[in-house]
Hints:
This protein is α/β, with parallel strands linked by helices and 357 residues long.
Amino acid sequence: MKELLKSLVLYFAISTFVYAGEYPRHWPWRGVNIPVDILEREKDVIKDLSNAKVNAVRIHVNYKKLMKVYELDANQVLVQSMMMLDELLNQLSQNNITAILGVEAFPQEGFKCKSKLKPIFWNTKSCIDKMYDVTEKLTVQFRNRGSELSAYQFISEPVVKIDGQSKRPKNWIEIQKKLLMIVEKNDSKRFFVITPGPWGFVQGYKNFEPFPSSKVIYNAHFFQPQLYTHQGIKHRKFNVEYPSWIRLQHWNKAKLVKISTDLRNFQKRYDVPILIGSFSKMNWIIDNDQWLKDALNIFENNQWSWSYFIVGEDPWHGWDPRYIGSYKENKISYHGETKTWKLLKEYFLKNHELGKK
């Protein structure tokens, strides 16, 4: 009996070590996504974010877009992005802000690697190997960085379309485990951010098990109901209200809490850090920001870190909370102190209050 008890104690000690997450600098994070090339357009943006009490940013690196905008091939864009990242990280360090380096579309070439939505992408060895190669180079490049870099993330919305349905790629977990091994080998002091998929849905955490590492942050995105947050995009209708009935379901705070159940249960079961790495609504939505208030309160009540999507994206500003506009007229103008941005800054102040304790 004593031997059995010893074994149980050892088992639970190992389980706790494996699954209980560590927490990175400035946790919980309250911040925004920014594109990697933001300093090309807004030289003082990091100082502005610091003044707003942002304590973390997710640097959004979309190599597919960068290759097109700057007319670079896959090798050139990787070198260019590293220079951009170094400059950004320098400024973040000077302003006491930490960052997630988030790679969305890897620098791929060839039709097989063109779209993550297609099965051929996930079934082509060269496409997957490119992920490993880029991760290797990025983690070696930035391993000597300080606390201005907290974590790496690779593809925050894993998905493949099969027969019109969004699914998690069958090899996604295997890919993530290998990416984690590369990070642990080259830059073990950083955290690794993962998303179960498909997409970034919070429901992806149903029956999901954590990775055997204490330096993993578990990520989800929060855009539901999309007919509200994405209204006007891709033929979605305008003037969708919240709270309201949408497709025979009543969307209000209680509904948002309910759809978050799987993520909340996962957090309680394993005691791991949770990040809402992207959430937002189109900036032409004219309402009282009740959806945003409800979402933020849910995050805060669960002690989830969060990062609003996105400040400084160019040339399209439909997600930027500092802008207002009309999608129908294709007119979006910089305002700075929008109602949405003011509300977000109220929550950023919690970072300052936490820092004084």
